[in-house]
Amino acid sequence: MASLEEKNWRVPPFNSKLETGIRALVVLEAFYPRRCDLTEMTWFDHLVVHTGDLDGHDVPESLHPDLPNRTGELLIRRPLVEQSLRMMQQMHLIEVFECETGIEFCASDAAPSYLDLLQTPYSLALKQRANWMAGYFSGQTTAEIRSLIESRIGRWTAEFRAAKTSVGFPT
Predict the structure, then answer these.
(1) Which of 22, 23, 29 is nearest to 109 (CA)?
(2) Buried (b) or exposed (e) across 108-125, using 16+ Cβ within 10 A?
(3) Taking CA 31 as the corner, what is the angle to CA 89 and CA 67, rounded to the nearest 5 degrees?
(4) pTM
(5) For 132-168, how does the pLDDT look when each residue is reduced to its tens digit (9 = 90+)?
(6) Average pLDDT for 2-24
(7) Domain spanning 17-159 has what CATH number?
(8) Domains of the chain: which residue ranges?
(9) CB 98 within 8 A of CB 166
């Protein structure tokens, strides 16, 4: 059997569009019926695997290791999250809404059936953290979430304000 080094990977096994898309779908289903924009989805993609970056009662342990400078991942995550959302839309698992404030995303009616199929320990832990996170942020506006993230994790959101796109998604 060939080792990972010997394989000619066309798609990286980690942080692929599919893996990121599944995380996005898990998050959107947990937050349903709330719609989230690209900036929020980038924050939530980071936080769902790094829940330990948040304070609060019963904060679940992070799924991914707490590596130094992990907040720099967000610069890489944003385009990947955007591409993964487009892919999940093409699979009819998320819905895209054009609003006065920009583009927003929401889980589709098909999402729960698909997510019910994901039963690995990692998938179950991811769903549990997404549900916890939805409760943690329930009732908060985007501005309140931004303020909390800037104060708790750092000012890495400044790059997102400047880079906010209005890329259209096919309907």
Answers:
(1) 29
(2) beebeebbeeeeeeeeee
(3) 90
(4) 0.81
(5) 999 999 989 989 988 887 776 665 443 444 344 444 5
(6) 71
(7) 1.10.10
(8) 17-159
(9) no
